[in-house]
TrEMBL record:
It comes from the Bacteria. Gene3D superfamilies: 3.40.630.30. It comes from Paenibacillus odorifer. Pfam families: Acetyltransf_3 (PF13302). InterPro entries: Acyl_CoA_acyltransferase, GNAT_dom. Transmembrane segments: none annotated. Residues 122-253 form the N-acetyltransferase domain. This is GNAT family N-acetyltransferase.
Length: 253
């Protein structure tokens, strides 16, 4: 294990499942360059939609990984003197654009224990097939943009909802992040008239507790400029892990 691998593995607060997942993503290939701040690796096993990725963790370290074809396109080679600034400039010069970073949040080990030991509050529960009509009414009360941004679906692995006077006003859903990982990615949506009343916080904590009971680590992502979503993550007890970016679907090859 390299020093950089050890650092990633030892980022404080987070579970081994999380740190192992990201370490494998970014350091499971041939390391082209590494210093105290920046590391670049080449991995031929990356999926097409993640053939360039960048992760900046909360300790200020930045990792990038590319497929061999993308490394050739960008002009990266062994023993090259690199920095994040040089790397991003090379991407731009090669016509490679990134999608736009997401914040990625998880529960710290300490906050996970608080969640698991606490009692969940409010009129909320797991939704089932019997709630299809209720969920359809919920969707019809939300804008298309909110539905697209939240990606809350009844056919996901788990769906939880919060009610006011028998009306579904907030819902969250989860699905396994990748087939071979124990991470569950979540989305949450509160109807506009009911925002700011704590519904989303309770639903997020409820579905995350369920995920832990099923052996999964909850994962919460949002765009950097989604301030309401970042506030919700913190209110729900989640901790920022880092900023993660992937190649844009519109990027040239």
């Amino acid at each position: 294990m390299t020093n950089q691998q050890s650092r990633v593995n030892n980022i404080p607060l987070f579970s081994q499942t999380i740190t192992d997942y990201w370490r494998e993503k970014f350091l499971n290939g041939d390391v082209l360059y590494s210093d105290e701040v920046f590391t670049v690796a080449i991995n031929p096993d990356l999926d097409e939609d993640s053939r360039v990725m960048v992760l900046e963790t909360i300790d200020g370290r930045i990792m990038a990984v590319l497929t061999p074809a993308m490394a050739d396109k960008v002009g990266l080679y062994q023993q090259q003197d690199l920095s994040e600034e040089i790397f991003r400039r090379k991407l731009k010069e090669a016509g490679v654009t990134l999608h736009g970073a997401d914040y990625v949040y998880y529960f710290s080990e300490a906050d996970k224990n608080v969640l698991l030991q606490g009692n969940l509050e409010g009129d909320l529960r797991r939704l089932t097939e019997q709630d299809d009509v209720v969920f359809s009414e919920f969707e019809s009360s939300a804008s298309e943009q909110d539905l697209d941004d939240a990606f809350v679906e009844m056919d996901h692995w788990a769906v939880f909802g919060s009610f006011e006077q028998n009306r579904l006003v907030c819902a969250a859903s989860m699905y396994p992040w990748e087939n071979d990982t124990q991470i569950a990615d979540l989305g949450v949506l509160t109807l506009t008239p009911f925002r700011g009343k704590g519904y989303a916080r309770k639903v997020v904590r409820s579905i995350c507790k369920y995920a832990y009971d099923q052996g999964y680590e909850p994962q919460y992502r949002c765009q950097l400029d989604n301030h309401a979503s970042t506030l919700l993550a913190k209110a729900a007890g989640l901790t920022l892990f880092g900023k993660w970016d992937v190649i844009s679907p519109d990027s040239t090859d």
